[in-house]
Amino acid sequence: MLTLYYAKDSSALASHILLEEVGADYAAHEIPIAHGAHHEASFLKINPKARVPALATPNGVITENPAILTYVAATHPQAHMLPETPFERAEADALNAFLCATMHVAFAHKLRGSRWTDDPEAQEALKVKVAANVADCAQVLETHHIKGPWAMGDPYTLCDAYLFLAPRWMAKAGVDLSDYPKLEAHHEAMLKRPATLAVMAVHGL
Ligand SMILES: N[C@@H](CCC(=O)N[C@@H](CS)C(=O)NCC(=O)O)C(=O)O
């Protein structure tokens, strides 16, 4: 049995969608970060980094979307969510790493400036380049990471659940998805998948 700790409309959507896609036996436990629940002692025991998602497994807790996605894919081989060759796996890892370490961080400067500075003026200043940086990231995705119809071509793999977040970050940053046709087509295809829709409903989206 797995337990996913998530916040609504957060990056935990990616791990949540993949759990649903593979038909995992899991429970979803909401941590309302807007109310500071991620800083409570009970959650810090699960993830001392005070972030969601976190996935409790029989072997211990896994944090970080790329690691959770890989674990879920690897433990549900019947769902074929891991690309077959070492090179393709590395390509999928590269996409997940870019989403986690570059695009999500670029977006986080909009709402989470306090991670980088305590100065309210500097926090405002950090917001200025968010749209441009997120747009640059979207162009990288469009140019290098979407073979179509899914990120790795055909079939759907673990990184598609994560790529679903990019248009959501773009919308919140004010970046127009229609300027990125492959990304837009990917998003539309994601919105037709029952697993995506089921998880969105849980997140109130
Ligand atoms: N690199 C982490 C990022 C996790 C993360 O930043 N999650 C956000 C929600 S999208 C969070 O928990 N924020 C709480 C906070 O910053 O206080 C991952 O991909 O799992």
Q: Could you explain the architecture of this structure?
A:
The chain has 205 residues and is α+β, with helices and mostly antiparallel strands. It has two domains: 2-80, 3-Layer(aba) Sandwich (Glutaredoxin); 86-197, Glutathione S-transferase Yfyf (Class Pi), Chain A, domain 2 (Up-down Bundle), CATH 1.20.1050.10. Helix content is 53%, strand content 9%. The protein has a four-stranded mixed beta sheet, covered by helices on one side. Helix 1 runs parallel beside helix 3, helix 4 (86-111) runs parallel beside helix 8 (165-173) and helix 6 (130-145) runs antiparallel to helix 8. It is globular, with a radius of gyration of 17 Å. The two termini are 26 Å apart. The mean pLDDT is 98. The structure holds glutathione.
Notable characteristics:
205 residues; alpha+beta; Glutaredoxin; Glutathione S-transferase Yfyf (Class Pi), Chain A, domain 2; 9% strand; binds glutathione
> Could you say which structural class the secondary elements and strand pairing correspond to?
alpha+beta
What CATH architecture of the largest domain do you see? Up-down Bundle
What percentage of amino acids are in beta strands? 5-15%
Relative helix content: 40-55%
Flag low-confidence runs: none
Small ligands present: glutathione
Number of domains: 2
Major sheet: 4 strands, mixed
Major sheet: arrangement of strands: 2-1-3-4
- What is the average of the pLDDT values? 98
Distance between the termini: 26 Å
- The radius of gyration over CA amounts to 17 Å
Q: What's the total count of β strands?
A: 4
**H-E string:** EHEHEEHHHHHHHH
CATH class of the largest domain: Mainly Alpha
Query: CATH topology of the largest domain, anyone?
Result: Glutathione S-transferase Yfyf (Class Pi), Chain A, domain 2
Number of helices: 10
Question: What is the general shape?
Answer: globular
